Every structure is written in structure tokens, then in C-alpha cells.
């Protein structure tokens, strides 16, 4: 049995840097998430520009697998499609990605 994300889907305001980056420049945040889970920064960053919700569905699933977090691919799809920026910020927070230092 797995755990939960550190913050809820609407908890992105706890980490203002991730929240702002997810809303203003999501492709960069996607790239950082991709890098942290062992995927290609540039490829995911560019793919996000073509299909905005595509990479976060894939990456959120990878984050869940690596961190042993409960959930399903269907849930990742819904979060990525309906709440793209919040899902990006949630994944970045889970991986302790900090853009502004």
C-alpha cells in the first residue's frame, strides 16, 4: 500500500516558486520534473508546448511510481487534463524542485 502526495492538488500555494513557474512557464517546470525522474528535460519541455497536458500525465505517473504513491493512470489523466498547472506544481513539490533560491 502506497502513500499520498506531500500536498494536495490545490496545495500549490505552499510553494510559491513552483506555483508561479507552473502557471507562467510550465514547460520549464515540466523539464525539471522530467530530469528528476530520469527523463529528457528538453524533449518533455518541447512536448509540453505541443500538447500542454501530455507530459504531466506521463511524469505524474512516474513520480507516483518512484515515490510509491497511490493512484491510477486515469487519475493522472484527469489531473493533467483538468488541472494541468496544479498537477505540475504538485509533482514539482513532491520532488522538492526549487527554481528560485
Detailed description of the structure:
- This protein is mostly helical and 101 residues long.
- It has one domain.
- It is 64% helix and 0% strand.
- The chain is globular.
- The chain starts with 15 loop residues before the first helix and ends in a 7-residue tail after the last helix.
- 36% of the residues are buried.
Secondary structure layout:
Blueprint: H1 16-24, H2 26-36, H3 41-50, H4 54-67, H5 73-82, H6 84-94
Family: Belongs to the cornifelin family.
Organism: Thelohanellus kitauei
Protein name: Protein PLANT CADMIUM RESISTANCE 1
Q: How confident overall, as mean pLDDT?
A: 88
How do the helices and strands follow one another from N- to C-terminus? HHHHHH
Q: Unreliable runs, pLDDT <50, ≥5 residues? A: none
Q: What is the 3D form?
A: globular
- The helix content is 55-70%
Proportion of strand residues? under 5%
Strand count, sense and closure of the main sheet?
A: none
Instruction: Tell how many strands the DSSP assignment holds.
Output: 0
Q: Count of helices?
A: 6
Question: What tags apply to this protein structure?
Answer:
64% helix; mainly alpha; globular; 101 residues; 6 helices
What is this entry, summarized?
The protein has 101 residues and is mainly α. The protein has helices at 16-24, 26-36, 41-50, 54-67, 73-82, 84-94. This is Protein PLANT CADMIUM RESISTANCE 1.
